[in-house]
Amino acid sequence: MIWKDSVSVKLLSQSRQSLTCEIKLPGSSLFIYTAIYASNESAERTDLWIELLNLCQSFALSTVPWMIGGDLNQIIHYDEHSLASVNSFSKRMVELKDCLLQMGLFDMRFQGPLFTWTNRQPDDPIAKKLDRLLINNLVLNLFPNCTSFFLPALFSDHSPCLIDLSYKIPSSVWSLKLGLAPEALSRTSVDCFGNRKKSRVF
Question: What positions does the domain Endonuclease/exonuclease/phosphatase occupy (predicted)?
Fold first, then answer.
């Protein structure tokens, strides 16, 4: 994780599949963010769901704004699979859905494609919604206009997610440095958002 000095970040917990931090933006209340990179193995993913439930209880995360973002490697509804043959709930779907219900988490309002992963096999294409940005109700109280954007997958088989909290950080502390040359940043911007001549890239 990378952040500016003006943002306070405190590590609360980490494991092979998750990283949980307490984040404080200037002029705002703190919130909790958990980054997820779930295992390809279903048994290990079950361990992750149990780990998240334990985190929720240990840190009383149902009482503070909490976000979870990343690759969960599991859909929660058969509509999140591109194949028509996947048309019923599996044990794994129900397992994750029940976990999210217990934690009071749901998808942040988002724009972009439903399917965030593809196998990139033209002869046998499969797409799924494996990546999510999840929040509880307290996040909406803190950032009522927050939105997530799933962008085109340029270099990966997953779509990157951009979160807009619609929160204005005081200008005296706002500065973003990107590790891209200006021409590379410009090409990426055009690829993702089109050629908007009046747009500015900061």
Answer: 35-158
**What CA–CA distance (Å, rounded) separates 84 from 24?**
44
Helix, strand or coil, per DSSP, at residue 73: coil
Residue segments in the chain with a per-residue pLDDT below the cut of 50:
173-193, 196-202
Classify strands 161-164 and 31-37 as parallel, antiparallel or unpaired: unpaired
Instruction: Report the Cα 104 to chain-centroid distance in Å.
Output: 16
* CATH class given for the domain over 8-175: alpha beta
DSSP conformational letter for 158: B
- What confidence tens digit (pLDDT) does each residue in 89-102 have? 999 999 999 999 99
CA–CA dist 46, 84 (Å, integer): 26
| Per-residue pLDDT tens over the stretch 23-68 | 999 988 999 999 999 999 999 999 999 999 999 999 999 999 999 9
The domain spans of the chain are 8-175
